[in-house]
Amino acid sequence: MNWDEEPPQDTGRLVGATAEGEELAAEAALRPKDLTEFVGQPKVREQLDLVLRAARARGGTADHVLLSGAPGLGKTTLSLIIAAEMGAPIRITSGPAIQHAGDLAAILSSLTEGEVLFLDEIHRMSRPAEEMLYMAMEDFRVDVIVGKGPGATAIPLELPPFTLVGATTRAGLLPPPLRDRFGFTGHMEFYAPAELERVIQRSARLLEVETTDGGAAEIAGRSRGTPRIANRLLRRVRDYAQVKGDGVVTREAASRALAVFEVDGRGLDRLDRSVLEALLKLFGGGPVGLSTLAVAVGEERETVEEVAEPFLVREGLLARTPRGRVATPAAWEHLGLRPPQGTAAVGGPPEGLFES
């Protein structure tokens, strides 16, 4: 996929890590307001706390901050916390919204001193705007070009000191000159189940939902290491408990609710299982090409590659090889299937398929 292409959207999936519309509004009510409330990411929290405290002690603006990591791990939340900790307003925009240098110049010229500019998906910003951002970050000024051709004139425009917080899901696509201009870079890791349990318990209190330890643990185990997914699953389990139970989120209620929504014990949903089932049952565990696998499950190639595969690879259920996609022994075990006789450790030619 090219850097400027629209990424596949998984907002229709209960375990999708992106959010739009009403989902964003629901998230806003659950977001922590300061670093002491923020759960998880201990290294990033500690380092960021030092950066912000030092900036406040100097009475100046904080260094520019780059946050990288998968969707749903809290990059937007941390940007809001940075603004709150610095007592500054925040302006929120995204890379795809800035397609011309003039778009960026209009935003930068309207910033106030100390303001935080949050630029989501910064790697998808246009190249001309990116080059203008270099000077704005380093010298707090931009050159606005007036006119065209030989008569064009560059007018320097001084900017008040500001803090840029860039967020990206694909840090490798950022050019080194842009990456180097950030004073602090934090990489967001996936959450451990114990951390997600704390996230769920906190969200349950805010939603005024009674949740047992077992219920929180059951949801955490199916949340794919992502707080956004954990909060989404909590709201769906709450709905089930209110309609089919006594309103209490217990382990049993969570298990039954997530079975209704087709989220299994490891967090796989219909799409994930379709990919694994096609790989195992139709192709004997692989290797099989990505395009062929996508046709087999009736999805676009990009959807399989960008939406389903990352989690399956991270869970050790699927491997990418030069010859194609192959299933691991854990995939056979998870679907309750036995590998064909003579199959290699991570997949091979089908010689029969047996239910275990």
Overview of this structure, please?
With 356 residues, this protein is an alpha/beta fold. The protein folds into three domains: 41-187, P-loop containing nucleotide triphosphate hydrolases (Rossmann fold); 193-260, Helicase, Ruva Protein, domain 3 (Orthogonal Bundle), CATH 1.10.8.60; 270-355, Arc Repressor Mutant, subunit A, CATH 1.10.10.10. The protein contains 14 helices and eleven strands. The strands form four sheets. It has a five-stranded parallel beta sheet, with helices on one face. Strand 2, helix 4 and strand 3 form a beta-alpha-beta unit. DNA binds at residues 301, 320, 325. InterPro entries: AAA+_ATPase, AAA_lid_4, DNA_helicase_Holl-junc_RuvB, P-loop_NTPase, RuvB-like_N, RuvB_wg_C, WH-like_DNA-bd_sf, WH_DNA-bd_sf. One of its GO terms (cellular component) is Holliday junction resolvase complex. Keywords: ATP-binding, Cytoplasm, DNA damage, DNA recombination, DNA repair, DNA-binding, Helicase, Hydrolase, Nucleotide-binding.
